[in-house]
Design a protein that fits this description.
- The protein has 148 residues and is low in regular secondary structure.
- Helix content is 7%, strand content 8%.
- It has one helix and six strands, in the order ββββαββ.
- The strands form three sheets. Strands 1-2 form a two-stranded antiparallel sheet.
C-alpha cells in the first residue's frame, strides 16, 4: 500500500467501512461514512444537545418554548388551553348580508349585483330576483332584454 494512513474507518459498529472522506459528528466527535453521518443513523447518544426543535402552535402559528425533559405535545396542549390567542367562534365567517328587504341571510363571499352594486344572498343575486330597478333594463329569465 502506498498510503496506509489515508482515510478512516466508520465508527458505526456494524459498518467499519474505510472512507477516504469521513465526516465527523459535531456532537460525539467520531468519524462516520456518508451513510451513518446523521444523528439518527449512528444513534448518537448526545444528539439531544444539538437536535433542538421548537414546536409551533397549529392555531396561532406562534413558536412555543419547550424546556428540557418536557414533552412537546403536552406543552402545546397547555398553550392552546391557556395562552393561545386564537379564539374560535369570535371570527365571523358569514359577514355579507343580503340587501333584499325582508331577507336576513348572510354569505361568506360578496355577491354584488352588476346593475345596482348591492350585495345579495345566493337566492337574490340576479336582478330579477331582487327586483333591481337601477342600471339598464331588467333581463328576463331566458336572458334576452325585456321589450317595452
Amino acid at each position: 500500500m502506498e498510503f496506509p494512513d489515508l482515510g478512516r474507518h466508520c465508527s458505526e459498529k456494524t459498518c467499519k467501512q474505510l472512507d477516504f472522506l469521513p465526516l465527523k459528528c459535531d456532537v460525539c466527535e467520531r468519524d462516520f461514512c456518508k451513510d451513518h453521518f446523521t444523528y439518527a443513523a449512528h444513534k448518537c447518544p448526545f444528539a439531544y444537545k444539538k437536535d433542538v426543535q421548537v414546536p409551533v402552535c397549529p392555531l396561532c402559528n406562534s413558536p412555543i418554548p419547550v424546556k428540557k425533559g418536557e414533552i412537546p405535545d403536552v406543552v402545546v396542549g397547555e398553550h392552546i388551553d391557556r395562552d393561545c390567542r386564537y379564539r374560535p367562534g369570535k371570527e365571523k365567517i358569514f359577514t355579507y348580508r343580503c340587501s333584499k328587504q325582508g331577507c336576513k341571510k348572510k354569505e361568506m363571499l360578496p355577491l354584488a349585483c352588476e346593475q345596482c352594486r348591492s350585495n345579495f344572498c345566493i337566492q337574490h343575486r340576479h336582478p330579477l330576483d331582487h327586483s333591481c330597478t337601477r342600471g339598464s333594463r331588467a333581463v328576463s329569465i331566458a336572458g334576452s332584454k325585456v321589450k317595452r
